[in-house]
Specification:
Layout lengths: L6 E5 L10 H25 L2 H8 L3 H29 L1 H15 L9 H33 L4 H22 L5 H27 L2 E5 L41 H11 L2 H34 L5 H20 L1 H8 L1 H21 L3 H15 L2 H42 L2 H31 L10 H6 L9
Antiparallel strand pairs: 1-2
Helix pairs in contact: 1-4, 1-5, 1-6, 1-7, 3-4, 3-5, 3-14, 4-5, 4-7, 5-14, 6-10, 9-10, 9-13, 9-14, 9-15, 10-13, 11-12, 12-13, 12-15, 14-15
Subcellular location: Cell membrane
Organism: Streptomyces cremeus
Keywords: Membrane, Transmembrane, Transmembrane helix
């Protein structure tokens, strides 16, 4: 008998209407633009780090401590953003954070000391962490509504925005001051928010939580035939909705979700934490290359500021290409092989990028690292969601973004203690660790899947062979 309790987020419309409506297409496009804006602004900041380091007269250790402000602000916000999204909606929080993040990007070039820079980056980090959580929460809803595994495309937009931001930053690095450059980014961010924000908010109102439609269920003893059973949380008087019949047998969604949360086996929570660690290991590398890659190329290999900025641009380009091809890769290799091979590729690439004696070899290493890391983070987040629903996505995302934000200050302290090239090899070490954790996660996921409650997600080998493309964002 089909599972009647599987919850999705679908588009409001007529019964039997295809989810791939123009409304959902517009919603997906608008949300994609915000992912791209996030990457664009972040890349614009990182390519100016060498200039701002010189402007504030900060040592490597002092700069690493200032960058810790980004991490601290993001962690604080990530613990609060979930509540804000629950109260105001993830789409509204996304738009608000985009506007504020655009304003905050112009603050770092106004500082003249490491302490002032750290305080400013605390604000920047808070807004960066907020928009990251809000966008991914909104993306989960869009993926479920589309009933297609399009999550990698959102992350590809982030990478594409980062590539464009780094490329433009490299072009203007020699001609514009950091203040002029980042002020232009503020203007661009506000213009995009004004242009895409209304569409995102308007089209998101068409999404409603609903119990998955069941075409027809044969009658069983004590059960009457049910069609198109839909439950809208928050409707106390259970007003009729078009296409909904016999609502008396529809379980309360909030009660059901609470029951599932309590029934979730400890093993599933541990596997979610494991996938969160995989995300952390790979996001550490992305954050480290973003903040310290250009500085390594400029100071250790004598690259021109424009060529140094091209290092992160190549990394972002490779990651974008890898994520756009992510669905095909998952279908052919499966999730475990994608995780293992991706981690191994990134480890080799980063060893080359950090230890190469010439600029061109280092650039090649950055590109290989981007290809290796491209799909590990989206796969880890998706698998966490398959095992534990939205709670799993939130937990793994927080760990992952924590790695992205904690990596740069760790690199700074290691650079003072050892050297910047040696510090960057930790990216290769953690990428190799993610590869090993990918193998471990497969076995652990199968164990959690066997102990999961009826109707829960599983970590079966069948899912692994299919690449997990069964709508990873479904609730």
């Amino acid at each position: 008998m089909p599972n009647l309790n599987k919850v999705r987020t679908t588009a409001a419309g007529r019964p039997g209407e295809s989810p791939a409506t123009p409304s959902l297409s517009r919603l997906r496009t608008a949300l994609t633009l915000f992912f791209a804006l996030d990457g664009f602004l972040f890349a614009g900041w990182v390519v100016r780090i060498p200039a701002i380091k010189e402007q504030t007269s900060a040592s490597a250790g002092a700069l690493g401590l200032a960058l810790l402000g980004v991490s601290a602000g993001a962690v604080i916000t990530m613990t609060l953003t979930g509540r804000l999204c629950g109260r105001f909606g993830s789409f509204r929080v996304t738009v608000a954070c985009a506007a504020l993040l655009s304003l905050s990007i112009a603050l770092p070039p106004l500082t003249r000391s490491p302490l002032a820079l750290g305080l400013v980056l605390l604000v920047f980090g808070a807004l960066y962490g907020g928009i990251s959580v809000a966008m991914n929460s909104a993306a989960v809803d869009v993926v479920a509504a589309l009933r297609r595994p399009v999550m990698p495309s959102f992350h590809a937009a982030f990478s594409l925005g980062g590539m464009i931001g780094a490329g433009l930053g490299g072009l203007v690095a020699g001609g514009l001051s950091p203040l002029a450059h980042l002020s232009l980014l503020t203007l661009a961010g506000l213009l995009l928010t004004v242009a895409a924000g209304p569409t995102l908010l308007r089209e998101s109102k068409r999404l409603v939580p609903a119990v998955a439609e069941v075409p027809k269920v044969r009658e069983a003893p004590g059960v009457t035939e049910v069609r198109d059973r839909t439950e809208v949380p928050g409707v106390r008087d259970r007003t009729e909705v078009p296409g909904v019949r016999d609502r008396t047998q529809v379980p309360d969604v909030r009660t059901r979700k609470e029951t599932e949360r309590r029934a979730a086996p400890v093993g599933s929570r541990r596997v979610v934490a494991l996938f969160g660690m995989i995300a952390l290991c790979t996001a550490y590398g992305e954050g480290a290359i973003a903040d310290w890659g250009p500085l390594h190329l400029q100071e250790d290999l004598g690259a021109h500021p424009g060529a140094a900025a091209a290092g992160y641009s190549l990394f972002a380009l490779a990651m974008t290409i890898g994520r756009f091809s992510g669905t095909t890769l998952l279908e052919r290799l499966g999730q475990t092989r994608t995780l293992v091979l991706g981690g191994a590729t990134a480890a080799v690439g980063m060893l080359l990028g950090s230890l190469a004696p010439t600029l061109w070899l280092a650039l090649l290493g950055f590109a290989v690292t981007g290809l290796g890391l491209a799909n590990i983070f989206p796969v880890a987040i998706s698998r966490a969601g398959e095992l534990a629903g939205p709670g799993g996505v939130a937990a793994a995302s927080t760990l992952g973004y924590g790695g992205m934000l904690l990596g740069p200050p760790a690199i700074g302290f290691l650079a003072d203690w050892l050297s910047l090239p040696a510090a960057l090899t930790t990216v290769a070490v953690l990428a190799a660790g993610a590869s090993c954790l990918g193998l471990l996660a497969r076995t652990a996921g199968q164990t959690a899947g066997r102990s999961a409650p009826p109707g829960g997600r599983t970590g079966s080998s069948e899912q692994d062979r299919s690449g997990g493309t069964q709508d990873p964002g479904a609730r």
